[in-house]
What does this fold into?
Amino acid sequence: MSVRRLAEDQFQPAAFAFNAENAVWAEKTIMKYPEGRQQSAIIPLMMRAQEQEGWVTRAAIEKIADMLDMAYIRALEVATFYTQFQLNPVGTRAHVQVCGTTPCMLRGAEGLIKVCKSRIHDHAFERNADGTLSWEEVECQGACVNAPMVVIGKDTYEDLTPARLEEIIDAFAAGKGSEVPTGPQIDRVFSAPEGGLTSLLSDEAKAKSVAGKAKAAAEQPSTEAAPEKGEAAKKPSLDDKDRPAGIERPAQPDDLQLISGVGPKIESILHELGIFTFAQVASWHQAERHWVDGYLNFKGRIERDDWVRQAEALAKGGEAEYIKVFGKKPR
Ligand code: FES
It folds into this structure.
């Protein structure tokens, strides 16, 4: 249980007022409640104040209490009880709320927190140098099926890897947060299964899916990731701008099969593309990963297996670093 206090006086502005648009909205919101129950509007009004100012100031709490004819202590109780209210200034471009509850923790939330510590600040609620970013760990946000996830503002970013979260943080830091797609960050529609439906299919599609899976299982007994079967897959062009840059085969290429999901067949395709080293894989941005994923018809497998993080560890310190990061030997 955290202790939630108002920000120090030095951060508190002298006064608060809703801007013109929000003032009209607040009046309408208060009128939605039956006579004598106007105080029930406190939560929406406080949220609107937070959206306007970035956080909930003492002046805002007192102003809203006055508007609703409440004792200040009652409004303070609400502000300090609900953790969605930020009682201190947070990043002006993004306050990243990382879910650390069990499903997200089991699916890699700790890696996301490491990213926040390295890219924003070592401590939660502290802002980065230019005051644009901050972060905190929060409890379950109700998107467990797409764990791990973060919330920024009113949006969720799900099915994350550390590499993808870094890209999202970079976008917000550059003022381009609105360009980042919200929701699942892999090939998933809302909370449907990864890679497409597996149930509630038409009989024909069901038969195709079962036959396709049986065939794939028979053909792929190893741990190597199998390209998805059954659907017409359109390979991206080799001339596409998102194709990762290839290199000449070095005298001693890295053993790409140490990356979970890469077997002999996939390794030879990567070689054909000029991919021979862990460092190359570790440097892939989202567009490049998406291109390779499409080329291999993997439907999100590269993100799910987190090739970039695996390759980063292998490039940095080989098997020893991999064991340090993942707690097990590669493959
Ligand atoms: S545990 Fe993270 S969203 Fe539920």
In short: The mean pLDDT is 89.
